[in-house]
Amino acid sequence: MDTTTQKGKILSMRNAQRSNKKWLPALTPVALLLMTHLSHAQGLNASASVEGSTILQNRHSDVRNEELVTFSVKPEGILRYDSRTFSGTVIGSVTHLERDSEDVARKDTFSEFSYNANWQAIDHILSFRASGNQSYIDGSGGDFLISDYFLNAETLAKVETQNYGAYLTIPEGDWIAGGGSLVYAKTIAEESEFRPNIGLNNDSAAGSLYLMNGDNAQNYFWNLNSTYTKLERSEESGNGDYIGKYATGALDSMLYNDWGIRVTASYDANELVARTDEFSNEREFKSYGVGITYREAAGRYISVTANKVDSDVERDDGDVFVGVDAAWALTPRTSVQASIGRRFYGRSASAGITYNTRKIRGAVNYSEQVTSFSQLIATPQSLGVFVCPTGDFTADACFQPSSLDYTLGDDEQFLQFITTGLELSNAIFLRKAANGEFGIQGRRGTIVLNLQYADDEYLDFDQQRKTYSANLSSSYQLSRHSSLLGNLRYGVTEQMNNGTDRDSEQWFASVGLRRTFSRYFSGDVETGYVTRSGSLATSAYGADYNERRISVTIRYDFE
Fold first, then answer.
1. Angle CA(116)–CA(118)–CA(122) in degrees, nearest 5?
2. Is residue 404 within 8 Å of 354, Cβ to Cβ?
3. pLDDT at 152 over 50
4. Would you place residue 25 in the very low, low, confident or very high pLDDT band (cuts 50, 70, 90)?
5. Positions of E strands within 259-343
6. Domain co-membership, 509 together with 378
7. How far apart are CA 538 and CA 193, in angstroms?
8. Three-class SS of residue 258?
9. Which of 27, 286, 313, 484 is the most exposed place for a label (fewest CB within 10 A)?
């Protein structure tokens, strides 16, 4: 027996044992039928679907070559409830796979769920939200664009997140406006088969508060922003907890027409608790500044200040730097925002630009934050360019909202970012990230382009990781019942660790045809190509491999 066959059988036994211990959601035909009857309850809406696929896969690598036939069955149920003050959605699915090749037969079962609930305790003032999900992601971060249930399943790690928050809004009055939030999150990640010794169980708490002048302000304009974050990491990791505090404030005193004087201050502190090595230092940074402001309106101003540093780091203490804060509505359709300053790690910046027309929509932002895998995976991000049905992020299903201030419906969510190259880890890192999302929607076709860049500098140890990705998805309606679908993804990961540089490059391309046969019955035919190269080996197929696949899918919806 060769090692490939032996490994395949071992993995199959592991998954069989794991599957025996799982309690799968009751997504049987009886349960699906019950869910459809629930939809008749007042305020309650239930739907379900069953999807079956056959995938032919031809895979080549330096480690092994194989041809696979994979059968997939995926039942899914969605339950929604909506009333005047409360709304909630629960989605559950089970994907069962059976693979067959010359060397090995393998069965896998993946259960996923997500939920969200929103209670308006006091209309437009106080609300409580809860959300969570269980999903499977590439735990290595090196194959984030191509790893799925059909390729690199052994590298997938099960991640469960829970998020509970209270949100306060202070309506804009004559003198003050603002808001705040308190959020608790829990992240549990199990080790994958390929990386059996890496998992996490973390709790985090975060609070934020912002206050600003009201709409009656004429000569004085002010704002105050503050955040507090605490991440409690599992004791087994030995990394200690993380605490971050940040506050900034500014006051503009208008002196002559649109010109005024600005006074500003900031406080920034980060600490790795219970560490006894070089990374245990508390980093505390303060700055104070004064400058000038040109302000035409609330959304059209530019401020430039000279700021002095008060820092625990001797080489930074007493330095003077120039800070810029600007927001400008160039046209009714285009606005920009930017700030340049300094934090405990050095020069800092943030920026954003939005463009909005009837057919073309775009948004770009750049941000810097100290964060972790747990925090990023628990709070998916979006630029609000496209709105999609709950659980469906395909270009064929999404649409452009009427404005970037669009209020989501009960069964809608914004198109979310791809989790760019996140490595399953307990580490704390400084992330400098840029994200861009652009969309064009016409009478028959839709094109969505997502661009992402992330530079992660780890604070726990000597490692830096950069990721670049582009995702182009499109759909074109050939007829009333047929659509042509296309997807192109490209990603690069560069990792520097203790003087060793490694990288990976990923490509994925697919084209398919979707046909609706009736109100409830539809099908897809798709062909795809995957290629991966580089020196960063993160899967059982090594660093270089490629795959060709053809899939046929049928879907039946229950309402």
1. 170
2. yes
3. yes
4. very low
5. 259-272, 283-297, 300-311, 320-331, 334-343
6. yes
7. 12
8. coil
9. 313
CA 332/CA 335 separation, integer angstroms: 8
Which residues in 361-389 are b (16+ Cβ under 10 Å) and which e?
Answer: bbbbbbebbbbbbbbbbbbeebbbbbbbe
> Pairing relation of β-strands 86-100 and 259-272?
unpaired
CA distance linking residue 136 with residue 151, whole number of Å: 13
Q: Residue 397, by phi and psi: left (phi above 0), alpha (psi -120 to 50) or beta?
A: alpha
Cβ partners under 8 Å of residue 202, min gap 6: 186, 187, 188, 231, 232, 233, 234, 372, 374, 426
**135: CATH:** 2.40.160
- Do residues 389 and 460 both lie within one domain? yes
Instruction: Output the pTM of the full model.
Output: 0.83
406 and 333 in a single domain? The answer is no
22: left (phi over 0), alpha (psi -120 to 50) or beta: beta
Q: Any idea what DSSP says for residue 235?
A: G
| Domain extent for 324 | 234-356
Q: Are residues 449 and 552 in the same domain?
A: yes
In the chain, how many domains are there? 2
Q: Are residues 246 and 134 in the same domain?
A: no
3-state secondary structure of 526: strand
Rounded Cα–Cα distance for residues 500 and 497 (Å): 5
For residues 35 and 545, is the Cβ–Cβ distance under 8 A? Answer: no
Task: Reply yes or no on whether the pLDDT at 79 is more than 70.
Answer: yes
